[in-house]
Amino acid sequence: MFSPLELMRQKLLGAGQAFFLQLPNILVAILLLVAVWFASKAFAGLIKRISIASNRPDLGALLGSLARVALIIMAVLVAGAIVFPTVHPGDIFAALGVGSVAIGFAFKDILQNLLAGLLLLIRRPYKRGDQIIVKGYEGTVEQIESRATILKTYDGLQVIIPNSDVYTSPVVVNTAYKQHRNELVVGIGYGDNPEEAVEFFRQAVMGVEGVSVDPAVEVIPWALNDSTVDLKVRWWSASSRLDQVHVKGRVILAVAKAARTHGVDLPFPTSVVLLHDQTEEVDGDRTRQREGWPAGKNPPKARSMQANQKI
């Protein structure tokens, strides 16, 4: 019978001998992992360079990351088979297959956003630098990552929107086309000649910097309001938000200047308010009261709410 100390010593000696026997395999596995690490990094960089040359940097970044992770996982499996010859990669994949359902539920949102990001980058409904509206947020696309699309709003805020939300929501791409139409409603007085005002405003807007010649500027009589005849001024300019804002400001100034130059009235809404003075002696006497239109010496009696209900 061996003493406990003797048994421990033999176990340690056996473990040491096994370690030294496995040392060459361990070194080979470490070298393999180091080589694959640098090779995967170089491969991901190659994918990124190709994507940048194709003007698709976000897609290249995502594909490069996925390729690098896949290579490293394969290298770890091969290194494990080298160090532990009794363990085969197929057994590891089988074990992972058993837990794939649990893993899928645990990382459902991550995988959903990853797949949506990959589809967005492949189909490319918008790209980096486009100005879009999605989920009530408007701004410039800074980056499309594996998990989310990053927007920079016009007032300098950063908005991170999950790719799954972007993929399943309507997206307005303001810069999808080079030009964008804008409009301005101008109300003129009823004493002015609408046909002359149309020509005055059209000529004024045509001379504004940033307004496109083709399609041409339009000024259309649009509505007859209580105190104005409405003219709708429509023009085309570059689709970026900066151009839209500044061009519209210059159009407003040009329209106001043309109205002053040609004597076109730009009236503001007016209203008449009648105040009923309930302190007068004649209040309630419809033959003498001043508000409204007296009904004469024999005005009809006022009907009560009950009488109205009976009718």
In summary, what is this structure?
The protein contains 9 helices and 8 strands.
Give an overview in words.
The structure is a single chain. The chain is an alpha+beta fold. It folds into 4 domains: about 15-100, Helix Hairpins; about 125-175, SH3 type barrels (Roll), CATH 2.30.30.60; about 180-260, Alpha-Beta Plaits (2-Layer Sandwich), CATH 3.30.70.100; about 275-305, no CATH class. The protein contains 9 helices and 8 strands. The strands form 2 sheets. Strands 4-3-2-1-5 form a 5-stranded antiparallel beta sheet. The protein has a 3-stranded antiparallel beta sheet with strand order 6-8-7, with helices on one face. β7 and β8 form a beta hairpin.
Topology, please?
Layout: H1 4-53, H2 57-83, H3 89-98, H4 100-106, H5 108-123, E1 131-134, E2 137-144, E3 148-153, E4 158-162, H6 163-167, E5 171-173, E6 179-188, H7 194-206, E7 218-224, E8 229-238, H8 241-261, H9 305-310
Helix pairs in contact: 1-2, 7-8
Secondary-structure content class? alpha+beta
CATH top level class name of the largest domain: Mainly Alpha
Rg for CA atoms: 39 Å
Give the SSE string.
HHHHHEEEEHEEHEEHH
Helical content class: 40-55%
Q: How many helical elements?
A: 9
In round numbers, the mean pLDDT is 81
Overall shape: it is elongated
Read across the widest sheet, the strand sequence of neighbours is 4-3-2-1-5
Number of discrete domains: 4
Low-confidence stretches: 307-311
CATH architecture of the largest domain: Orthogonal Bundle
Q: What is the CATH third-level topology name of the largest domain?
A: Helix Hairpins
Strand content: 15-25%
